[in-house]
Specification:
With about 260 residues, the chain is an alpha/beta fold. It has helices at about 15-30, 50-55, 60-75, 155-165, 180-195, 245-255, and strands spanning about 1-5, 35, 75-80, 80-85, 90-100, 105-110, 115, 125, 135-140, 145-150, 170-175, 200-205, 220-225, 230, 240-245. Strands 1, 2, 3, 4, 5, 6 and 15 form a 7-stranded mixed beta sheet that branches. Strands 9-10-11-12-13-14 form a 6-stranded mixed beta sheet, with helices on one face. A two-stranded antiparallel sheet has the order 7-8. A hairpin with a 5-residue loop joins strand 4 (about 80-85) and strand 5. Helix 1 runs parallel beside helix 3 (about 60-75). The longest helix is centred in the first third of the chain and has 17 residues, at about 15-30.
Length: about 260
């Protein structure tokens, strides 16, 4: 299974961000990728006050365009995340996944909101404007079941345990760590979850934007079930593409039998 992880900055408008995302997905498809993944909040600033301004319904223009991009390129698309507003006015940090024909496969609302206050470092409170999701997300593909979570979710092993129990062979995670937590915990967490649950972990981050109020750490990453970093970016815009041998999941679980038998 060939996966392309797209590390890009949000542009000055949602429309320009969508144009950039479409171009990057086309590039991934030309490289033969089966999956492409965009970053967390790829089409808007990562700012709590801004999320309501960019929020859309689940059948809004961004989701429609992501569906079209997947279908046009014949690729599975993990559409990063966007602010999604429901019929009651609640706003969620939501990721939508589409199959090769553009059909919606999954929707994950970020379960664990990013509310932190690091002494001498970053302070952020998503719950000022966002509501939490309530469930683990696993979706079916021709390659097998895949898990989906968003950013801060990666810190919670119980969510990964549930995805693994539902058969996930890999977990896709659009995320935006910062320069305080990123250097200390980004690689550590993706490797830990991969080893804990003996699956692939794949993180897509925004590229660093020095003009933004929240500067992403970048460092999009792909990790094997052995905990090996297969590829990792810096902070710049790029596409990471790796061929994942999904048979490693069964091999690792057989050789190191830490999970209960089905």
């Amino acid at each position: 299974m060939k996966v392309s992880v797209i590390q890009m900055q949000a542009r000055e408008t949602r429309e320009k961000s969508m144009e950039e995302a479409a171009a990057r997905v086309r590039e991934a498809a030309r490289m033969g990728a089966d999956f492409a993944m965009l970053p967390e909040m790829f089409s808007c600033p990562y700012e709590t006050a801004g999320f309501p301004l960019y929020a859309e319904a689940a059948d809004g223009e961004t989701v429609k365009r992501l569906s079209e991009i997947a279908g046009e390129n014949g690729i599975y698309l993990v559409g990063g995340s966007i602010p999604e507003q429901d019929e009651n006015g609640k706003i969620y940090n939501t990721s939508f996944v589409f199959d090769r024909k553009g059909k919606l496969l999954a929707r994950h609302r970020k379960v664990h909101l990013f509310d932190i206050d690091i002494q001498g470092g970053q302070s952020f409170k998503e719950s000022d404007t966002l509501s939490p999701g309530e469930s683990a997300t696993v979706f079916s593909t021709k390659f097998g079941p895949m898990g989906l979570c968003i950013c801060f979710d990666v810190r919670f092993p119980e969510l990964f345990r549930e995805m693994a129990e539902k058969g996930a062979l890999a977990v896709f995670c659009p995320a935006a760590f910062n320069r305080t937590t990123g250097p200390k915990h980004w690689e550590l967490l993706f490797r830990a979850r991969a080893v804990d649950y003996q699956l692939f972990t794949i993180g897509a981050a925004p590229a660093a934007d020095e003009t933004a109020s929240y500067i992403s750490y970048g460092h999009s990453i792909l990790v094997s079930p052995w905990g090996e970093v297969l590829s990792q970016a810096g902070e710049e815009e790029c596409i990471l593409t790796e061929e994942l041998d999904l048979s490693q999941v069964e091999a690792v679980r057989r050789q190191i039998p830490i999970r209960p038998a089905p």
